[in-house]
Protein 1
Amino acid sequence: MKINNNPFSGLSKTEIITWLKEDDPEKLNELWQHANSMRREHVGDEVHLRGIIEISNFCCRKCAYCGISVLNHDLQRYRMDLEEIVACAGEIENYGFGTVVLQSGEDFFLTKEWIAELITKIKTITNLAVTLSFGERIGDELVAWKEAGADRYLLKIETGNPDLYRKIHPRQNSPWENRIDLIRFLAAAGYETGSGIMVGIPGQTFEDLADDLLLLQELNIDMLGIGPFIPHPGTKLGQEYRHLRNDKNQAPNSEIMVYKVNALIRILCPDINIPTTTALATINKTSGRELSLSRGANVIMPNMTPVNYRKLYEIYPGRICLEEFGEEAVEAIRGRIFSSGRKISTGQGPSPSYLYKLKENTNNKYIGRRL
Ligand code: SAM
């Protein structure tokens, strides 16, 4: 039974699958409009800008989709030094952004102490919120970084299907369940917690995607990034993609499918932050970001990694922004936000969902537990 005949209230798995398979432009327009009005009502017209710095492309993981996996022996590896990262964060603040996102492969050369020092330095010289995205690290490290001043942590589950997860992380030490445990741990440790999935992974069905959406809703996460799976020819999954047969259950990794998932996420989790992912902007360089902003998203994360490193962080081919950096590029992004009829946020831009949790002062039972 739908409240006030609203076709979007309390979406069931079957209804989500129907939306994912919908291709009537008029019906889809209803979906975009509803996601857009939910976005306006719950998180407002502001677009938050987060500058991302990819601080290291070393990675000990063997993810079957990712170009910076340890299995890619052809890639030149880099690690930025501390002063370089702090200077880059200073520039991000000068551009008027409210958040710096520090991301890397899973690089254990970046120690607990070194990262804590990096966070302390950034928090001392800037007013930026600090988001970390360093993969699966142990509870002790995550607590230390929170205490050093980190605000947010981003850890995608990639897929909610443990079997598919195992398949795309074939020689992974830790199982899918560890990601879920870590996400809960991060939230209990006080982080504003982000996650997300890839859309169109070979072997991922429409049903999987619907389950993923309901799982992400249940996990009560504060930010969700949804991007298409982009095949990297140097990876196992990139090769498999070339031979993918036409299976009617296979969810496509298409632009439209990403918009559908984004819009449904906004409807299911109205109070969270949703970025327009770089992967989406890579498959539609001209209007991917704008379309995503008008279909539920409210965050843009321009790449602020120094240009000489940026091309080495090749998680998939054809990434956008390999050249752009500096005032001109930032102005271009601002212009695109204004022309979409939106405003640029000037603060750190936490999600309403996180602020509600702070008010409720949710329990901290995971703090101190070793993972
Ligand atoms: N090491 C951290 C982690 O695992 O969370 C962060 C770095 S990882 C390279 C960042 C994200 O890149 C992953 O969460 C994944 O979704 C995305 N990614 C990697 N390869 C991709 C591909 N071929 N297509 C789309 N997204 C990809």
Protein 2
Amino acid sequence: MALQLGDEAPNFTAETTEGSVNFHEWIGNGWAVLFSHPKDFTPVCTTELGRLSALKGEFDKRNVKVIGLSVDPVDDHRRWAGDIKETQGHALNFPLIADSDRKVATLYNMIHPNASDTMTVRSVFVIGPDKKIKLSLTYPASTGRNFDELLRVIDSLQLTAKHKVATPVDWKQGQDVIIVPSVSDADAKNLFPGGWKTIKPYLRVVPQPKS
Ligand code: BEZ
């Protein structure tokens, strides 16, 4: 069965551009993004990996490690890294898994045979410090992902893991949030002493709690 939100992210040991990695040990106590791309030396993937490398500091700030995967061998990953640096202006600065035997792709259901028998789709898994899956996304090979959106979702996941709030449509860091419906008004008085605005009894808006 496909992995679902709340499931434990399957552990594995794999060869990467930065040596052998035991996934759970590599995650440590922080957050992680595991993503697949269809193939090395392809145009959209080249832009994606350049952009992710450019954003490394943003992931670091959020205590999130990033690791990529395709079913290509590690020598290809290393040769392709030169093209990424040359064409995107940012050197690859996170590990890429060489999943030639499709072990990890199979564990995470990253090959969708009706899309392609030979390549992984563009999967993204965000994994929390408890090693549980917090978010999954699947994009087709033809569509590059928006990694600013991934950072936005991570901000929401990290905030809502800590506070009894949810984030509304198009929310961005610093904007007002919503008190979750399971919190009564009586409890909300303790949790949000600065007060909130009730638009409907189920729609209570509060400034974003400070971390
Ligand atoms: C790409 O990254 O450009 C790509 C990869 C596989 C199929 C189509 C496009």
